[in-house]
Amino acid sequence: MENNWDTRVAIITGGAAGLGLATAERLTAAGVKVAVFDARADALQKAASKLTGNASFHQVDVTNAESVSAGVTAVVESWGHVDILINSAGITGLTNLKTHEIPMDDFARVMAVNVHGLMHTFQAVAPHMLKQGYGRVLNVASIAGKDGNAGMASYSASKAAVIGLTKSQGKEYAETGLTINAIAPAVVRTEIVAAMPPEQVDYMTSKIPMKRCGTVEEFATLAVFIISAENGFTTGFCYDLTGGRAVY
Fold this sequence. Notes:
- By secondary structure, the protein is an alpha/beta fold.
- It has nine helices and seven strands; from the N terminus they run E-H-E-H-E-H-E-H-E-H-H-E-H-H-H-E.
- The protein has a single domain, classed as NAD(P)-binding Rossmann-like Domain (Rossmann fold), CATH 3.40.50.720.
- The longest helix has 29 residues, at 104-132.
- 46% of the residues are buried.
- The model has no long low-confidence stretch (mean pLDDT 94).
């Protein structure tokens, strides 16, 4: 199946910075219409100055189902359909803590953004994809969801949930024309990583056989392949982007 990027419409959550923005830049350059969802108005303004292709910007809180539904409705009303959903909105929560030290409200916030957010966006977008018999969904997980990172129990648990959800979705929608996959990066230099304690970043980087961080460009390259029309026989899978840390 040909990609026909110039006919595609994508929604990217957390798309105003980091991994989401890098992917948005790659897709708009290819001709894709990209709707950037982000909860941060200031980040959306900055993203608008960077994206030169066909993009729209929506202040959406993925933890709020009504906010997500309104954003998806606006995209469909403007562009008629949705072909691609990339769930890259995510937070780490407090880090460099042992599990018994984590405040429960912080744990709940991480799960609300990283897991409930995926449910909200998929439930809003899936009916449109099912109606047209085509869709590509990419859930951004993490190596922490495979291996677990000490000092990041909330984040690790949430990303393990993302991987499990992706595997279930892949099987559920395998005959519908939708593919649902995940990507598990190791440390990629983004704003989220920059905000973490240096010792936490050093700990994670030390586990990477390549002994370096990934780049947002490397993430975008793999992400665009995963959601391409040509990649039609893989679903429910979690792709590795870890410099050799995960080989399964």
